[in-house]
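FORM 7B: Structural annotation worksheet

SECTION A. Query
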Amino acid sequence: MNRTKAKLKFGPNTFEVIEKGDYVECAVSGKNIPLQNLEYWNVELQEAYFSPKEVKIRFEKIKSKK
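SECTION B. Predicted structure
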């Protein structure tokens, strides 16, 4: 079964599918996230995250740059 990467636009508490697909890629780990399991993203950066662990890693990286 071929899996297709989706393109999304992230908003507060929701996302819009720009290009249909089955998954998106985590911006930190590179892991594939099935759309039905997608729970974590950053609206400002327009990035998806696999879990709270990756959210924390990204937040710490951004915080250290300030």
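SECTION C. Observations
The helical segments are 52-65. The CA atoms of residues 18 and 57 lie 27 Å apart.

SECTION D. Sign-off
Analyst initials: ____
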